[in-house]
Design goal:
The chain is an alpha/beta fold. It is built from 19 helices and 13 strands. Bound molecules: ligand KET. The site of ligand KET has 16 residues, from helix 8.
Amino acid sequence: MKVHSSLSSYYLVFYLTACASSTAFSLHSTGSSSSSASSALSASTTTAASNFIWSQVEQGPPDAILGIAQAFRACDDTRKVNVCVGAYRDAKGQPWVLPSVRAAEHQLLENNDNKEYLPIEGDSIFVQKALQFAYGKEMDLDNTVAGVQTLSGTGACRIGGRFLAKFMPKDTTIYIPTPTWGNHWKIFDECGLQAAPYRYYSRKTNNLDLQGMLQDIREAPEGSIILLHACAHNPTGCDPTQEEWAQIIEVLEEKNHVAFFDSAYQGFASGDAEKDAQAFRNVVAKGTIPVLLAQSFAKNFGLYGERCGTLSVVCNDAEEKERIMSQLRLIIRPMYSSPPKHGSSIVKTVLSDDTLTTQYYTECASMAERIQSMRTKLVEKLAEVGSKHDWSHVAKQIGMFAFTGMTQEMCDRLTNEYAIYLTRDGRISIAGLNDSNLDYVASAIHAVTDGKSITEG
Ligand code: KET
């Protein structure tokens, strides 16, 4: 009897599925002019219907960064080196879980935490700790900052972009630095925002193009959105000085622009998370510039795959904060309901414990120091292997990357002939270098750049 009833329910499901798919077929075959095609379909299964529907879908291009990381994994050349994705590697070339992060995970296990859903806006204690990390201890977060937990920095840009698209006047443009993290363009496009470039970096001088930047943001229509990298600009590793920031702030204020900060590397620029937040905090402290912040804990806490970040909007008062929180919830709920719990629990645990926080700051500094030392060593090694180029810009740059000035053709040669995987804009993730691969990488760079220019014009 038991067998029979479960069998009959099996057939019932089968029957309903078959009915559903034959309805789908007939709907499609009505639209089709070929009766033989429709009879071929009706004789077949759901797979055939899918083929029929999706045959128009074109193959998309691989991602400019993650696609190369995928190609690296597939490569079986024993010489292969990964300097593509901005992910920290230790001196042995291995991913590194920060000991403070591990300690927090142990605490979480011991506490026997449950797996309940977080609220739509995420874990409020995590958000408060995270925002304090960015805005500083002085900031009146309770009354003036609307913040939600996000799917890392990408998710934060996406929620912030959607918020801006919904609530800024129609046709407001977001201005994005040239160059920038390539995903910015795609994210804001998906949000329905109009995007335009502003000059940021000169490939002629391999340096910040401050005058170009100031001119472009001054000429942008009043009340535009200006996307700014909070520190350790990706891919150039070139940040404005505090004096240059002061000039940028002046124009933002003069033109009533909205400043949208993307902070994916706080702690990676100088090794000191407090210092790296300075430019951002100066803009907030003005009190006259509308500010949004997309914050990621992928790099500085090494929580890449945990997808942990925040999006925040600076408000005038607590009442405004509540209104904005309600709108952020409305954006998040139909997108993914609520964020994942593990990464935010880790950050919350570390930043709620003075000992772990101190330990964390030391570990973050050690990552920045190792990168800085590999940066210097790369420049020295390039000279040692005979490169005649001036690579001083690489030594001067900060953060995870070196923006070398190498052309696409040079990058392709590095990958095809030397199995060195990097993005085709000449960016090298310095975190991927170590004492074992430095000679090889420097010699290969020398081989592909020798006698050719690494600056434009
Ligand atoms: N902003 C910037 C400037 C950035 O470089 C990244 C990641 C992100 C946001 C998003 O990171 P998330 O993991 O969502 O918190 N950049 C590296 C990884 C990637 O492309 O996804 C990279 O440039 O290699």
